[in-house]
Design goal:
The structure holds two protein chains of two kinds.
Chain A (H helix, E strand, L loop, with lengths): L1 E10 L2 E7 L1 H6 L5 E5 L8 E9 L4 E7 L3 H6 L7 E2 L1 E6 L10 E7 L2 H14 L3 E8 L8 H7 L2 E6 L6 E2 L2 H10 L6 E5 L2 H11 L5 E5 L15 E4 L2 E4 H4 L2 E3 L5 H8 L3 H24 L11
Parallel strand pairs in A: 8-9, 8-12, 9-10, 10-11, 12-13
Antiparallel strand pairs in A: 1-2, 1-6, 2-5, 3-4, 3-7, 4-5, 13-16, 14-15
Helix pairs in contact in A: 5-6
Chain B lengths: L6 H4 L12 H4 L12 H8 L9 H5 L6 H9 L3 H9 L5 H7 L6 H4 L11 H15 L14 E5 L3 H12 L3 E5 L8 H4 L8 H14 L2 E3 L10 H6 L5 E4 L5 E2 L12 E3 H8 L21 E5 L3 H12 L4 E6 L10 H10 L2 E4 L1 E8 L5 E14 L5 E5 L5 E4 L2 E4 L3 E2 L3 H4 L26 E3 L2 H4 L4 H21 L3
Parallel strand pairs in B: 1-2, 1-4, 2-3, 4-16, 6-14, 7-8, 7-14, 8-9
Antiparallel strand pairs in B: 5-15, 10-11, 11-12, 11-13
Helix pairs in contact in B: 5-6, 6-9, 7-9, 10-19, 14-15, 15-16
Classes of the chains: A alpha/beta, B alpha/beta.
Amino acid sequence: MFVVTEARTLAPDIRLIRVGAPRIARRRQAGQFVIVRVDAEFGERIPLTIADSDEDDGTITLIVQGVGKTTKLLNMLQPGETIADVVGPLGQPSDIRNFGTVVVVGGGVGTAIAYPTAVALKRAGNHVIGIVGARTKDILILEQEMGATTDELYFMTDDGSYGERGFVTQKLQSLLEEGRNIDHVLAIGPIPMMQAIADVTRPRDISTIVSLNPIMVDGTGMCGGCRVLVGGQSKFACVDGPEFDAHDVDFTILAQRNTMYRRHERGALEQLELTSEHCCQLRLQHPDVGPDVQAP
Amino acid sequence: MAERLPPKERTKVPRQEMPERDAQERACNFDEVNLGFESALAEKEAQRCLSCTDPKCMHGCPVGVQVREFVDLVLEGNYLDAAAKIREDNVLPAVTGRVCPQENQCEGACILSKRFAPLAIGHLERFVADYERATGQVGLPERAPATGKKVAVVGSGPAGLSCAGDLTLKGHDVTVLEALHEIGGVLVYGIPEFRLPKEIVRGEVENLRRMGVEFETNVVVGKTVTMDELFDEEGYEAVFIATGAGLPRFMNLPGEHLGGVYSANEFLTRVNLMKAYDTEHSDSPIYECRDRNVAVMGGGNTAMDAVRSALRLGAKNAYIVYRRGEEEMPARTEEVHHARDEGVQFMNLHNPIEFLGNDEGYLTGVQLIKMELGEPDDSGRRRPVPIEGSEFVMPIDVAVIAIGTGANPLVQASTPGLDTNKWGYIVADDQTLRTSRRGVFAGGDIVSGAATVILAMGAGRTAAKSIHQYLETGVW
């Protein structure tokens, strides 16, 4: 069992969770992930990138957007509660070198995945330009953290409620059109965003890395469920990735494979919502019921 | 206690077969197929043993179970002592009694098999192990005084468990490190419930725990902790690598990325370890098989496990697509018979050449080509040759690729100085299972390539002896 030491809300449906996992905290490098299972009996295994770690107190930090049943269960956790299984650090660490000028693009909760690599790139001596995108101001995350680790930081919102109005690709495009010399790009976010960034950098031959999020089971190369097509070759995101050359990734196949269980996922969510509603009502009627039926 | 029949009479008793659940009934659920012996059946079968002075069965067993002795105890009605006798050499009797290919091991060597059917050693083993479990009086062997020496076992499959059990009895402190969240390796992620109920595996693991074996889940050696750290920082004096052959092989055919195409590892892991068969409770989905067509590519035991699982998930048609003929099938005869009885359709001498899908990326069919058998190949089996122009499309919704597995490179890649062969398996000495690194031993599928539970357990025992010797003498 892995004990949650801190849990707080960063934005609607996005929570930061710190959990005790000393061995992982000690070994993890930027770009790596853990596989997490919340419920000990019937829980599914999901991959989550490690946003940060503290070797001294033996904790790792996860930033979780509640989109499916397991992520929503994670986001209900309070300090002192436990996660059944946390295993890692898995996957290859990010390629950290002094490239020169790098652009780190984070879309939505992808910013949380890009953040640790941005920190490492900055430490390696790069001039780091951050472009953070979100639908709207309220769901922007890690604003301060990204501010502290980048040399320049731009915000893009779909509705113009913060920073500039528009997409992260537009910002990257305009930097390039201004004649900025960009040596390397890291883009992490929704699949269409990563694909669009790849399309912007491909004609200019700028090395571009994306972090992929296919469905995984074991995370150690055993099941092959996370296979992605990269440069015409089948790769396992869990052991060969999760980061790949954006110009070689077949994003269409990735997007299709990620929808494989959509119907099941919807069903599981509906059930969870029914149960949490039930728990909320239960709590209203019986304010003293135990912590395991508390909704957030 | 039963009166022993004179030797001549013993051979007149027919082999007692295992009662099994009705094929139609069992094809719809994940309940165990084989139902086990009652004591009367067990006694009758035990009467058939000729009590050879040089029992061939024992030599045919990779862990050397004292068959004659335990069968004698069954005849005496001392079922608990019989189980304890098996446990002296085999830490997982309830498991091996179910999944061993006895026809190639103990029963294949049984002297009776020359003229009659061999003694049903597997059925008897299972009977006493189940009897023991039901009474809760498990006769665990005695542990030697503590040596204070720490050994890490990497992987909790049959090789790891067997090694851990033996070393613990020698008095060493053994910790088994498992990457997944449950102990048992292939016994929990691979072999389905209807052949090996997970309750049985949990019971055997609990027995090992009571013997003193420590278990840690969620530890990926090479990632969570390295080999160097195990020795230098965590104080282990020897490590046994028993990580199995867990890397799925694909066929590299067009369309293999379509939704609905699985490796056997993923399909079985979802169904078994993640309990996807329990759709009401499990959070892990499996692509819908109910009322749909499922084809499993391959002819081994894993292929049979996958196709029989698909039937139980409600498949309308469940096919085995195998490029050779039934005679060449590597699966156990019993598994093939069980599959056929349950309604699996065999498309032998067929090979897939392309997976076909719709615009949304979901599998809709597979293009197959018919094969015929040509001259024998390196394996001695007749080589399958495609019949030109015989291609046709079979509509399917789910495909499972069960053509074998390879070596997972995680441990090797992160352990400097550990030699591997050209296929990525770890190189270990045949006799001692020593690797190229001092203090590191390896055995089971990660050395031999995919084999059987009992061969892996045999390797575990060999490793335990060798590790014990190394710890005692310090000589490498």
